Amino acid sequence: MFMQRLLSAALFGAALAFAAPHASLANPPTVDASARADAVSVLAAWKKLDAREPGVYVSGPTYFSYALHRIDPKKDGSSAKAKARIAAEAEAVSQLAEHVLKSAFKDDSAQDALIRHYAKNMRLHFEGRVVVSECGAETCAAVFVTSESEIEAAQRKLDRTSLEREARADFKKRPDAYGAFFAERGFPDAALALQMRRQGKNFFNVIPPAPTTAKLRAYERFLQSRNSKIAALIDQARSSGVDRFELLAMQSALASENVREFERALKASGIPLLSWPTDHPFLESVAQAQGFVKFEAAASAKTPESMAYVRTLFAEGKNLELATLLLEDAAARHPANAEVWEYLAGAYFAAGKKDPARICTRVWLSLAEGVREPIFYLTTHFDANEGKSRASDLAQLFN
After folding, report:
1. For residue 399, what are the contacts with CB-CB under 8 A and spacing of at least 6?
2. 3-class secondary-structure state, position 311
3. 146 contacts 42 by C-beta, under 8 angstroms
4. Is 93 exposed, middle or buried (0-12, 13-18, 19+ CB in 10 A)?
5. Contact, 143 vs 88, CB < 8 A?
6. Per-domain boundaries in the chain
7. How far is the first Cα of the chain from the last one, in angstroms, to the nearest whole number?
8. Rounded distance between C-alpha atoms, residue 231 and residue 234, angstroms
9. What is the dihedral of CA 230, 235, 236, 238, to 10 degrees?
């Protein structure tokens, strides 16, 4: 639908702007002289801006949205250039819509940020035209132009009350879909843990210990084939420009094979690397994945028998060392049980072991039925003081 609107609103205008008589046409289209002069004037104003980066630019009462899209012959074959041209034109209009949303909901509050995040794909309609649509060897560029009055009209159509209500309802219903929102608010590790929840069943990175040598060898053969497929998907994702947290989530599936590369990718996304020295092989695998885990489908989610006793120890506030040992064993035996990781995070935190506590909280967030409590635990227990104020801001969205 968005593409249809783009083509009807923008490309039609572009065709008018650049239509010229062609020698092979029996009845060449005519263009009003004033329209041609206006098109030339607008194009001259754009060139005068000398914009070097994609974005929205303003010149007097005129708004320009400049977008680039990479040509991908590997993915799109012979039609790669045509598809990239259309994608650049669509991005130019989409970029303008995002600019309108940012100007309408410009507070730094979590509430305004949530509305922007929710509404950024709204099909805002602008009367305007594409004044540049051209392709080079690697990219296609597009410039969509509209007027200040069109921008103001779009802003007036945004009903804050209904958008706020819809955004909050959607956020409460499916918070897993708001990883990018949490990253924008300064919690990139929460964003990645939420993305891990959305990964497919074959993207697991921590497996339960194989019971026999024969099964272990069979599993190793299976993993070798699976890892090759995931590596190919990662290469394809890099070339198609997917969200960085989606890419990180795929990379985590290979973390045990290439820990250093995964750690470099985490650092590049602003996610802290944590240390958890442990002699337990299973927990060591979790530590290597930095707590961003997707357990293999066969992993047990049963509630361990020891949990009743662990709850009692926590309630009485005694014998924390015993509770921790029981929980570490329970995590290895029943790794897909979210409550185990919740309590293990609490045990480590109470003992002052904040890195292991944070790793376990990431696991808990990736497994929990609801995300509210693990999100708050992650943000309020481990972030700086300014992070706590942001977490308080987030808390209001769940109420």
Report:
1. none
2. helix
3. no
4. buried
5. no
6. 2-168, 177-398
7. 34
8. 5
9. 120
Structure tokens at 348: 């480590």
- The H helix count followed by the E strand count for the chain is 20, 4
How confident is the model at residue 9, as a pLDDT?
36
The pLDDT, as a whole number, for residue 238 is 78
From 84-93, 259-268, 378-387, the region with the lowest mean pLDDT: 378-387
What Cα–Cα distance (Å) separates residue 64 from each residue in 11, 158, 307? 15, 21, 61
Which residues, at least 6 apart from 201, have a Cβ–Cβ distance to it below 8 Å? 297
Q: What is the pLDDT of residue 4?
A: 33
Q: Which amino acid does the sequence have at 177?
A: A
| 3-state secondary structure (DSSP) of residue 145 | strand
pLDDT band at 281 (very low <50, low <70, confident <90, very high): confident
Tokens of 2: 């968005």
Q: What's the residue count for the chain? A: 399
State the number of CA atoms in the 13 A half-sphere of 233 facing the CB.
18
Pick 200 or 274 by higher pLDDT: 274
pLDDT digits 0-9 by tens, 348-369: 999 999 999 999 999 999 999 8
